[in-house]
Specification:
633 residues; 17-stranded antiparallel sheet; Ubiquitin-like (UB roll); globular; mainly beta; three-stranded mixed sheet; 4 domains
């Protein structure tokens, strides 16, 4: 259909059908919006999918009309109409797209009215619509969202049968009166809680996870949290809550909980990526064979055995190495006392063969108690705050086999390390694998006593505190429109760790020292070779010694480039000092570089190249390649 525009424009319609235009390769030359008075051309261009100089696709034109219509209606233009027309130049295969807008009258929020409420006060209802500002452009989606909030308020206050009707009335030509008509219905109480499907598990396992009780008002939010808690035990494949009406009791219901149990005994194998913040021995691929019992005697206590060898690629020697092997026996008590605080008992044996350092074995006995909670009700289901305490006994054996630096000969033999650690962490990032917003802050304070022998065979003892703290932040970059198009993320981290000795300076077992350099700390440096190290016969760093103080600083831009691929532009800084008293900020080493990242279902896989900005004569190369799993931080 031909339409009359405000300017004389030659329209070629019918030269090609829409389907033929799409089938042939035409390029879009210009996109214009006619009679667009409320918004400028750039704003509207950013909304649509059709772009100048791109291939013409009639499906995108249809989608653009929908996007433009929805945008205008969200801005108060309730009667907007959008039409499209094409100007086709067949000779140079170019198309001009014109969108003709009939904006109509713009409407604004004038008043919000509630009727029918009795048990819920008007102040409570006004809290649900507080995000709607009067005399701002009318947006129906805001009222739909407010309606859901009002219904949830009733659902969580004993009113599962609430009925809410939303109606509009136009006043003073351009103002809208929004009317919420509420029928509260009866208040409902929980009379009884029934359980179905418990064969291997005892009833108290489910009961202690509930956030509802007999006699309380019906609360849908607490029922949802109860369901999440039961799933969180790991004992059930299926959990469902049903309400049963009661004869002659319109104000009462029974809650019926139906579950399907998992098999208690299990065995499995997995391949995964190993990454530890506190002990970074590079990026490892782990192969695990494991099995156990997840529900001992129906009490939700579990025991499991894990055999975990690992592989790592050594870029320096271009070979695959075996940096760590471990066997662990783990027992978990899911509830410590009356609190939902699991306690984990672990007995494990580790063989460490890290790149660029001495080999050593660790025999570990440990107890960890951890509690997760939410810092506010809005994040209740995410449980962003972690508090934990741990005590460990380690038997550290530095091996003489293979290459061992003479500076470490004094550490030969066994060190006994007794450690008690307190740890707190707050994690508000929006995605575990690929965070684009939020922050992480943590603090670990540990007290240790190590007992071993010196080079003369005499007993030595050392007591020390280990303090480690880190802060991460993830934030979208640029203007709102830019973030919507590009989704660029700025990620930053600062991390520091120190070992404070009580008394004279002594040797610390190698397993307790800090190391830096590599794919997850300061890229451009080989794994662990930033900081104190032994030099080879050519004067290059060959084996890391570790240190008692660590400082890391990182910043990187993560930029989507195509499909699941991102690129990184990073700058890293940091160092390790052999003693705390040797700390010197002028010795902080920096590197920069680029990386390519592929986002996969199991997490990001990245290939980075870092260049040292402060190369020293003892550094073998100006830069290093790194293969990493997950982001560096």
């Amino acid at each position: 259909m031909l339409r009359v525009f405000t300017k004389p424009i030659i329209i070629l319609i019918g030269l090609l059908s829409f389907s033929n235009l799409s089938a042939q390769e035409f390029k879009i030359k210009e996109i214009k919006f006619l009679n667009a008075w409320a918004f400028d051309q750039k704003t509207l261009l950013d909304l649509i999918h059709s772009k100048r100089k791109s291939e013409f696709d009639v499906r995108l034109v249809k989608l653009d009309k929908i996007l433009l219509t929805n945008y205008y209606r969200k801005q108060g233009f309730l009667t907007v109409n959008v039409f499209d027309s094409l100007v086709v130049n067949k000779s140079d295969r170019k198309i001009n797209i014109f969108y003709l807008l009939e904006e109509g009258r713009r409407y604004y929020f004038g008043q919000i009215q509630f009727t029918g409420n009795a048990e819920i006060t008007e102040d409570q209802l006004n809290q649900q619509v507080k995000d709607i500002q009067l005399n701002t452009p009318f947006d129906e989606s805001q009222l739909v969202e407010a309606k859901q909030k009002i219904e949830n308020l009733y659902y969580n206050n004993g009113k599962p049968f609430i009925e809410t009707n939303l109606d509009y009335e136009f006043i003073q030509d351009s103002l809208v009166l929004a009317k919420f008509q509420i029928s509260e219905k009866q208040t409902v109480y929980i009379r009884d809680i029934k359980y179905q499907g418990l064969f291997d598990s005892r009833k108290f396992i489910v009961k202690r996870e509930l956030e509802i009780k007999k006699g309380e008002k019906y609360n849908r939010e607490n029922i949802t949290f109860s369901q999440e808690n039961i799933y969180g035990t790991g004992l059930f494949d299926y959990v469902r809550f049903d309400l049963e009406s009661l004869v002659n009791d319109s104000n009462g219901v029974n809650v019926k909980i139906m579950v399907q149990e998992k098999k208690s005994r299990w065995i499995g194998a997995r391949v995964g990526y190993a990454y530890e913040q506190e002990e970074v021995y590079g990026n490892k691929i782990e192969f695990a064979l494991e099995g156990g019992h997840r529900n001992l005697f129906g009490t939700a206590r579990s025991v499991s055995l894990h055999l975990v060898p690992s592989l790592q690629y050594d870029f320096k020697n271009r070979s695959i190495i075996n940096p760590e092997n471990q066997i662990s026996l783990i027992f978990v008590e899911p509830w410590l006392g009356i609190a939902n605080t699991p306690a984990t008992f672990q007995f494990s044996y580790h063989q460490y063969k890290p790149l660029n350092s001495a080999d050593f074995n660790v025999l570990l006995f440990g107890l960890n108690v951890s509690h997760k909670s939410a810092t506010n009700k809005a994040r209740r289901h995410e449980k962003d705050l972690t508090l934990s305490a741990a005590t460990q006994v380690k038997l550290v054996d530095v091996l003489s086999q293979g290459t061992l630096d003479t500076t470490l000969e004094a550490d030969l033999g066994k060190d006994q390390v007794y450690t008690t650690t307190l740890y707190v962490r707050r994690d508000t990032k929006n995605n575990y694998f690929n965070p684009t917003a939020g922050a992480v802050a943590d603090l670990s304070i540990g007290f240790s006593q190590s007992i071993g022998k010196n080079e003369f065979g005499e007993k030595r003892s050392n007591r020390y505190f280990t303090v480690i703290s880190s802060w991460y932040r993830y934030q979208p970059m640029g203007t709102k429109e830019f973030r919507k198009q590009k989704k660029v993320t700025l990620a930053t981290r600062i991390k520091a760790g120190s070992i404070f000795e009580l008394g004279a300076t002594k040797n610390i077992p190698i397993s307790e020292l800090f190391f830096a350099g590599g794919a997850s700390s300061v890229r451009g440096y080989p794994e662990q070779l930033l900081g104190p190290a032994v030099l080879d016969e050519n004067g290059f760093k060959s084996s890391a010694l570790g240190g008692k103080m660590l400082l890391l600083m990182n910043a990187e831009l993560r930029i989507p480039i195509y499909w699941l691929f991102l690129t990184e532009i990073f700058i890293d800084g940091g160092n390790v000092w052999q003693e705390v008293k040797y700390f010197n900020p002028t010795q902080i080493k920096f590197s920069t570089g680029l990386g390519l990242v592929l986002i996969t279902p199991i997490g990001p896989i990245r290939f980075d190249y870092g260049i040292k900005l402060m190369k020293e004569p003892s550094d073998r190369a100006a830069g290093n390649f790194h293969l990493g799993f997950y982001f560096a931080f």
